Amino acid sequence: MKLSDPIVVLRGMGPKTREVFLKHGIQTIEDLLYFFPRAWI
After folding, report:
1. Rounded Cα–Cα distance for residues 1 and 28 (Å)
2. Hey, what's the torsion of the CAs at 31, 37, 38, 39, to 10 degrees?
3. Suppose 26 and one of 1, 8, 31, 41 were both cysteines; which one would form an S-S bond, judging by CB atoms 3.0 to 4.6 Å apart?
4. N-term to C-term CA, the chain
């Protein structure tokens, strides 16, 4: 698994979860690692 792989390669990533991540602009594993929700900053 590479950081540039799409998030769909993650175990447990179904279509509904994928859509939620895509709404936040998260398309790759790297995007997911660097995503910090505003409420936590």
Report:
1. 11
2. -170
3. 31
4. 28
pTM of the model: 0.74
Whether residue 32 is contained in a domain is answered as yes
Instruction: Please check whether residue 2 lies inside any domain of the structure.
Output: no
How many domains does the chain divide into? 1
Spacing of C-alpha 21 from chain mean position: 5
14 is a domain residue: yes
Interval 3-35: pLDDT, tens = 999 999 999 889 999 999 999 999 999 999 999
Q: Is residue 12 part of a domain?
A: yes
37 confidence band (pLDDT: 50, 70, 90):
confident
